Amino acid sequence: MRRRHAHGSRQGRRIVLVAVTLVLAALGSAMGLWAVSGRTDSTRARSVSTPTASSTPVPETPGPDSAQDSAVRQQLEQMRAMPVPSPERALRDRIPAEARSHPDLYAAQFVTALLTQDFRRPRSQLLSWVAAEAVTTNEPLVVGLVPVELRDRLAVFSVTEESDGPGSSPIPSPADWIRLGALDAYTTVADVRVSEPLAWSNAVDAGRITDPGITARQVTATVTLHTTDSSRPSTTRYSVSLTADFEGPPTRPSWGFVNVVRYTSLKEGAS
Q: Rounded to two decimals, what is the model's pTM?
């Protein structure tokens, strides 16, 4: 039995290149690098690359004749062609050293830093920080169809890939980043809460996870976008939920980021 870590307007879809999304497909989600999930208003939803209850059988991985094969190939090509930022180790102090020894603390700090964005600064700086925090895993239920040679790109790809057009990723596209920068925009993050997804804990209890260092966490928070237009400041609040995979002890000495697998952002109000 694997040791369990017992701790307690953006819209889009994601095609998942992981075997577990077949389970999600059987439950009504389309599958494929992150599976299609329902959305409402400004909701960005990526089906979690975490297993469902242990009573659900896992179908075989789709072959080349799968209906999703072309979509899978397209996203693999995008991942292969994407520019990979150089890890900026000097930025790692965004996460306190004490948080790196505990998955809940690390998840809270990572998501807070990821969603605290200053659009007046270069976008590349945030991408370099993500690259510095990125680690890899060989867990089949996480990486599934992602080939070994591309797994070091998965972390950055997961926070920037826009399956449903502008605004559909945790980090905005270069064009949106520039547009928001022209408005002196930045975000602040509050009310951060962390939990272990039930689907993940079920899979751990069933012994379906083979990597002893991998875990998943769901993080919820309130993100406030601050902008200034014609010298008039305004704010817009979003309720955000983000689920991600993390890798840490005993595989690694401290926790690191693998990929974002589900992200939703609902507009709450403006002032």
A: 0.77
